[in-house]
Write a structure and sequence with these properties.
- By secondary structure, the chain is of the alpha+beta class.
- The strands form four sheets. Strands 1, 2, 3, 4, 5, 6, 7, 8, 9, 10, 11 and 12 form a twelve-stranded mixed sheet that branches. Strands 18, 21, 22, 24, 25 and 27 form a six-stranded mixed sheet that branches.
- Helix 1 packs across helix 2 and helix 7 packs across helix 8.
- The protein is elongated, with a radius of gyration of 33 Å.
């Protein structure tokens, strides 16, 4: 109630009410009784109050009426911008928590709680959220023929048949919370009442920028329903704890002769004339948040989102154990760097996952350990924040650092069109891959809050290059400050799509920046590849004292006779050599690794590698293979290489048999002919 309204009802001035609120004065005893009557509460509550009095206004579901112009939305379009996948949810929700980190000296703590409800526990929860009031709206919305309607009907059928409901609560602590007024600009309105309102206040460091990420919360619910409990970092209406609201996203539907737009809110009935009948957030009592499974641990600011009817639409995770593991893995994959702290930079995030069934722990809380999931990448970043990098690798566990230039194009109207822009020095970290790394020899790229944006596989690496892991830090992820850092951060963020999973052409990039911005990104990727090649090194096979080594590394016999001439120009449409590495082993055997590039073909290539010694006179004697093995994108069948149609490159490895050598391996050149196999399709 506004101060002026209370003053009018009490027959006093607004200044008198203002003095009470600002603690400059206190009402007289008879005035306190009148205040209790105005608010409909027991007068004793005014005298004996030690805590805020819980609201007495009824809770209700308010369904938005259909548009007067006849427009209809058969679902929330923002929810279709992402897959209803637990990994996507973890990425988007954790990114939002990072962006809202409150105390920069401490990490934001993120906790995911899976909770299956059955039997009386399910009944109690459905009663607390007024399911009987909602069910008719669900049935009406599910009767349509649209995609969302069919999904809703399947969810209702499963709830009736299985009598089980899965909740997923996403909690964050040391975050700003949903601050701000009910209907005007603020974090609360941006999340609860609006779409495509990012409202990020992270000083240019935010990972998100589209305002779409929050839609993944509703997309992960089979029922389109999310309940919210927020502890605010800035009081609203004099309160900070247990600001509760529910939001439901249904398609357009009709019920009892009334048409509804789809969205609905669960809260307190709004008494103000301007929004009369709307459901607004309320300051819940502790028993209310417990009944709705929205209770939080402690009073640290932040928000809890309860996804009702959670599922993983990808089909990868169906059991509770699988969903638990997928959440842990997804958090580790997306935010491993944000969870690492050191001497020069603390961790930005802590994350954990736990699983319950009917209020009992089913899977113990599991803290996400970035070093366990990404040991080599974690070692690289740990060395950076601890200041323990080296300029080049001389030992397996070292971390090399090299700077990579990124030129930021000028904003339109703020520079010349042909100006290359301001240089920013990004940081590339490289170390040896760990033994258990399934994916390696890649560069993981990030900016801002150290969320993984994209992975890049360097081009033109020598086949003998050791397996490695590399991290590219740009913008604020470098831990540096300065104008070039801010410019790079904004430039890269503008080049990211809503998924924030690559740096490429976007409408924002081409609209805001001068022509050439996309070229600067391509040049950046090229410089990253160049930096990696400089660190892993090139092993060139060059002549030395004694016999020349592999003067003709590979001859490709396109005619199939086995006698292709050296240096002859190859006809178009036949495989060509891409790269060769060779060495003589201690036992005298030649060990060769050959990469070939193939044109597109409808039939498989069938090729026969033949090893020969290049002697001074006479024919080239053939030698046998002790081993012939496929390395990449081919297979070995009966001594032939078989490359599938459409494959454009392949690598094979061969080791000669020293018992078939006419002379010692180190006393002759080796020639490898790759011939057309007899009877083959190539």
């Amino acid at each position: 109630m506004k101060q002026a309204d209370l003053a009018l009802r009490l027959g006093l001035t607004r200044a008198a009410v203002s003095a009470w609120i600002n603690h400059r004065a206190e009402p007289r005893e008879e005035t306190k009784r009148e205040i209790a009557m105005v608010f409909g509460i027991d007068p004793a509550s005014v005298y004996n109050r030690t805590t805020d009095i819980a609201s007495a206004l009824p809770r209700q579901w308010h369904h938005r009426p259909a548009h007067a112009d006849g427009g209809r939305e058969y679902g929330n379009a923002a929810a279709f911008a992402f897959d209803a996948d637990l990994s996507v949810l973890a990425r988007e929700a954790a990114q939002n928590s990072l962006d809202e980190r409150l105390d920069p000296a401490a990490p934001v703590r993120v906790r995911y709680v899976l909770h299956e409800l059955t039997g009386e526990h399910l009944d109690a929860f459905l009663t607390a959220m007024r399911w009987d009031e909602l069910r008719p709206h669900y049935e009406a919305a599910a009767s349509g023929g649209q995609k969302v309607s069919r999904s809703l009907q399947a969810a209702l059928d499963d709830l009736d048949e299985q009598r089980s409901l899965l909740l997923l609560r996403v909690d964050d602590y040391n975050a700003a919370g949903l601050t701000g007024p009910e209907y005007q600009d603020g974090r609360y309105a941006a999340v609860v009442r609006r779409q495509l309102d990012s409202h990020k206040q992270a000083g240019g460091r935010a990972g998100g920028s589209y305002g779409l990420g929050k839609a993944t919360l509703w997309a992960t619910s089979r029922l389109g329903l999310v309940l919210v409990n927020s502890t605010l970092s800035e009081p609203h209406e004099g309160r900070s704890e247990r600001r509760v609201i529910g939001r439901l996203d249904l398609p357009w539907h009709e019920l009892d002769g009334n048409a509804y737009a789809g969205p609905a809110w669960f809260g307190e009935a709004e008494p103000e004339p301007l929004h009369k009948g709307v459901s607004r957030s309320w300051w819940a009592a502790e028993e209310e948040v417990r009944a709705l499974h929205l209770d939080r641990a402690g009073t640290a600011p932040g928000t809890s989102f309860l996804i009702v009817g959670a599922h993983d639409a990808s089909g990868d995770a169906e059991t509770l154990q699988e969903m638990h593991d997928k959440l842990v893995r997804s958090l580790a994959d997306g935010f491993w760097a944000a969870m690492i702290g050191g001497r020069t930079a603390g961790a930005l995030m802590e994350a954990s996952v736990t699983t319950l069934r009917n209020n009992h722990v089913l899977i113990d809380e599991e803290r996400v350990d970035p070093h366990a999931h990404h040991p080599a990448l974690g070692r690289a970043f740990q060395a950076y924040v601890d200041g323990e990098t080296v300029p080049e690798l001389t030992a397996g566990d070292q971390v090399a650092l090299v700077e990579v230039p990124l030129f930021v194009s000028p904003l339109k109207g703020r520079g010349r069109a042909r100006d290359k822009g301001r240089e920013h020095r990004a940081v590339l970290l490289l170390t040896s891959a760990a033994d258990r790394d399934e994916r390696h020899s890649r560069v993981v790229c990030m900016r801002g809050n150290r969320m993984t944006i994209t992975e890049q596989r360097p081009r033109e690496l020598p086949l003998s290059a050791p397996q490695f892991q590399a991290v590219l830090l740009a913008g604020f992820a470098t831990g540096r400050e300065g104008e070039d850092v801010e410019l790079a951060e904004a430039f890269l963020r503008a080049s990211e799509p809503p998924e924030h999973d690559r740096w490429d052409r976007t409408e924002e990039l081409t609209t805001l920046y001068e022509r050439g911005a996309l070229t600067r990104l391509k040049e950046f990727r090229t410089e990253i590849d160049k930096a990696v090649r400089g660190l892993v090194g090139r092993r060139e096979v060059t002549p030395s004292g004694g016999p020349a080594v592999l003067r003709e590394l590979l001859k490709l016999d396109v005619a199939g006779s086995g006698g292709g001439a050296a240096g002859g120009r190859r006809a178009q449409g036949f495989p060509v050599v891409r790269n060769v590495q060779a060495r003589v082993e201690d036992g005298g055997a030649w060990h060769v690794t050959v990469g070939i590039k193939l044109p597109d073909a409808e039939d498989p290539w069938v090729l026969t590698p033949v090893a020969k010694f290049d002697v001074r006179s006479g024919g080239r004697p053939a030698v046998g293979w002790a081993l012939l093995a496929a390395s990449e994108d081919c297979r070995v069948e009966s001594g032939n290489l078989v490359v599938a149609p459409g494959v454009r490159s392949a690598v094979f490895t061969g080791v000669t048999d020293p018992t078939t050598h006419p002379v010692q391996g180190g006393l002759a050149r080796l020639v490898v002919d790759v011939q057309k196999a007899r009877g083959g399709a190539a």
